[in-house]
Each structure stands twice: as C-alpha cells, then as structure tokens.
Design goal:
Largest sheet of chain A: 6 strands, mixed
CATH superfamily of chain B: MetI-like
Mean pLDDT of chain B: 89
Keywords (chain A): Amino-acid transport, ATP-binding, Cell membrane, Membrane, Nucleotide-binding, Transport
Organism (chain A): Rhizobium oryzicola
Largest interface: A-B, 25 and 17 residues
Number of helices of chain B: 9
Order of helices and strands of chain A: EEEHEEHEHHHEHEHEEHH
CATH class of chain A: Alpha Beta
Shape of chain A: globular
Main location (chain A): membrane
Number of strands of chain B: 2
Radius of gyration of chain A: 18 Å
CATH class of chain B: Mainly Alpha
Structural class of chain A: alpha/beta
Strand order of the largest sheet of chain A: 6-7-8-3-9-10
Number of strands of chain A: 10
Low-confidence stretches of chain B: 1-6
InterPro entries (chain A): AAA+_ATPase, ABC_ATPase_HisP-typ, ABC_transporter-like_ATP-bd, ABC_transporter-like_CS, MetN_ABC_transporter-like, P-loop_NTPase
Helix content of chain A: 25-40%
Pfam family, one (chain A): ABC_tran
CATH architecture of chain A: 3-Layer(aba) Sandwich
Oligomer: heterodimer
Amino acid sequence: MTTNADTAIVRLEDVRLAFGQTEVLKGIDLAINKGDAVSIIGPSGSGKSTLLRCINALVTPQSGRITVAGTRVDQLTRESERIALRKRVGIVFQQYNLFPHLTVLENIVLAPTRILGVARQEAEKLARELLEKVRLSDKANAFPGQLSGGQQQRVAIARALAMKPELVLFDEVTSALDPETVGEVLWVIRDLIRDGMTSILVTHEMRFAEEISDTVVFTENGRIVAQGSPREIFHGNDNARIRQFVGGLSGARGSVRDGEGI
Amino acid sequence: MTVVTAQRPAGRRVLRNIGLVALPAAILAWCLTDLSLGRELMQWLPYLASGFAMNILISLCAMVLGTAVGCALGILQLVPYRLVRAPIVSYVQIFRNAPHLVLIFATTYIFPFEIVIFGNYIAFPDWVKAVIGLAIPASAYVAEITRGAIQSIPTAQWEAATGLGFSRVQALRWIILPQCLRRSLPPWMNVLASITMGTSLASLVGVHELLHAATDASTAVRRLDFTVIAYVVVMAAFFALCYPIGRLTRRLERRFLPG
C-alpha cells in the first residue's frame, strides 16, 4: 500500500477506537504534511494522547485508516512491522521515562546501537551533537536521577532524535514540569520545528501552540471539533466552546497554572 | 559529650561483630583451660575443615544452578501463554513450600548412584544429589524474586522502550533486567544465606560435610567435652559464613531502597 502523490506524511481517516465500552476516538480525520508542526489541544479525556499513540502503533484502533510515511499502520499485524514503524516515528512522553540505570549518554546511545546496529563510536558522536543541541553537553555522564525535570525531558527529546525519526510525537511533554523549566523544553522543541522536523504535539501550552504551529487541532469527546491555523483557532473562532476553552486557559495562565492533564 | 559520640560508633561495631568474635574466643579460652581438649581439637581441625569445604562447594554449586534456572523460570512466568506459565507457576509454588530436607532425601533416593553414558559408568556422587536437592528450592525462590523484580519496574519503562522500537525481548535484555539486578540482589542474598545453612542437611544422607565430620570426630574421640566443642566449632563456622552475607544484604538494601 503506497500513498498516491500525497504530500501528507500522516493521514488518519475515520479512525475509531474504544477501550471496552468507552469510545475514545469517534471518527478522526486528520492530514499532516511533511515539515509541519501540528498542535492538538482540547480538554483532558478527549482522546488526544490516544490519537498520538495510534500514529506509532502503540495502540491499534478498531477501524479506520492510518497512513504514516507510506505505511498503512492499521494493517500492521506483526510486531516486527510495528517495530519497523516505531524506529521511524519518535515519541516523547509526559513523564520523560528515561532509563534510570544508564547515564544520559548511554540513554541516547542505547537504541541506535542495539536496534539500528549503528557503530558505537558513530552513535556516541551523534549523541554528543544532540546533547549540544538540547544544551546539556555537560551532563553526558550524569544519571537521570541527578537532573531536573526539564533537563530529563530534554534528554528524552535527544534520545528520540538519536533514531533519526521522520516525525516526532510530543505527548504533553511539559505537563509534569515545574513552571521554571517549561521554557527550556519549549525552546528545544521550537528549534527542532524551525529545523523542519515534522512534529505533532499534544499540549496545554496555548501560547506556545499558537506561536509554533502550522495547524492547531481542537478535540473534544473523541472528535475533532475544529482545525485550522493558530490565528483561526485562537482568535477568529466563532465556536463558543473553543473560545471558552482557549479563553479559560489563557486567562488562568497569568495567576494560577493550568493543572489540567497533569 | 564528644567522647560519647565518638565512642558510640565503635561500640556499635563491637556489638555487631561480637558473634564473629565471641564464639571463636570461647572456643579458644576453653582449649587453653583444658590443653588436652585443645590438642584433640587441633588434630581434628583439618578434617572438620575438609567437611566445611564441602558445605561451601555444595552451596556455591546449588546457588549457581538455582540462580540460572530460577532467572529463566522467573522470566517465563510472565510469558503471555498460559500453557507455558501454568507448569512453571506450579513448580515454583510447590518447591518454594517444600522443606529442604525432604528435597535432599528425594534427590538422593530418586537419582541412581551412577549413570551410564555410551557404555561408560559415571558415578553420581551424593554431594551432587544434595546440590540438586538444594538447587530446586533455590531456583523456586530466585524465580519469585526475578518475577517480582520485573513486575516492580514501572510500565512506563516498557512503553519508552517500545516507543524507541525495542522488541519485548530487547527491552527485557537492555532496559528491564539491568534494573532488576540491583533490586533483586538483597533478596537473592537471603536465599544464599538460607541455602548455605541448608547444606548441613546433606549430612543426613551421608555427604561428608562439616556436620557429618563433627559427628565422625565426636564418635572417634568419645569425650563429652569434645563433642560439645566440635558442635560449637560447627556453629562458629556457619556463623562466620552466613553472618557477613546478612550484613552485606542489609547494607545493600539501605543503599538501593532509600527512605
């Protein structure tokens, strides 16, 4: 199955998924072009993270078509095929999930050497370049437990990039962080998007989403309620529900930090 | 005040090691007050030592075998196929709850005293049977330790590994098991201490180990005070072997489980 002269690197068509009786995704249609940054926003429990996990086959929907870089993800039946896909799609989690028994450098080197078979020396060189990129060159030999949340999350981003993915999924990567360290992580992601990395972000950082996104997608109750440019979603939107959500969050940001999704 | 605080750690150290010092000191004092007893003991000491070497040999072999088998069983207990899991779970439950002595008797009398391989008769000595008898419960304990350690690793670690493209086996090998190692070391050492003490049971099936040697010696010497001191030596020897293991375990536990 190949895509026909299609510029979309990710395409979801009528994706439906339920965990038991609970419908989480109720028919999602979404197309993402190569090099784009797409932010998915919406209230907690609206299926944002599940949507992200469908793209790299961490969860499999009951129906619908998912195409990622020419691969029909929904038709993958063997674990080896899913693994082949995941090597090309990076994912960064809310809780960083670094490997606590390995140093920062080893965290980054592990997957390229053990899975892609990259030579140790080459992998280490790339890892050091990535650490420079996320501004943590001096922490190469530290263990994750010795780093702040923001530093750990930047290592997690470097670890995902070490596999040289075609796109990166960011799953609420700043939701577990101290307010002071959110900025340093967003900085790194902003750089990455400027370099042209296709990125899909589930986020509650509205201002950041507005600034870096090519497209913003608003989900609620397992459906995409609206999608468009940041300007359309954040300013020109006549949908009362979206205005309420966006307004409520940005209003709260000044005084009390949004605790949703943490 | 400063004197007290300076002395306290030293005092605690003496208290901790009193067992290691007290038993040998008592033995020595007794031998010095009754020199004929001391001479007798000196004569038998090499024989007792050869017995003790057998205890160490059985313990090491049983733990190496039990650990290898136990790790494999512990991992297989988590395999998603019930047909694989069920027999292993039964094995673990049965042998974790079986007295060591029963297993040593069982292996001694079930296995033949020699095996024939391509027409060659190979002896199957009793001590090897004792090794198997102790390796069986050791493997059951180690299987539970391994299973528990794997399950104690947060699922987020599996998810992170999967997200990077690791297969389940690769994730286990490179990410999960290395983290299990430090967690399972303290309980593993408890098993080591328990199996080491269990090696004395091999005397009951005629293996020449320390307790057996002490019985031999007391039968030969036929002196009540010698019989008593011989068994005190046995106690001191086991204590000297097992107590440091326990101490090291406690130290490791403190280091690995903060708070």
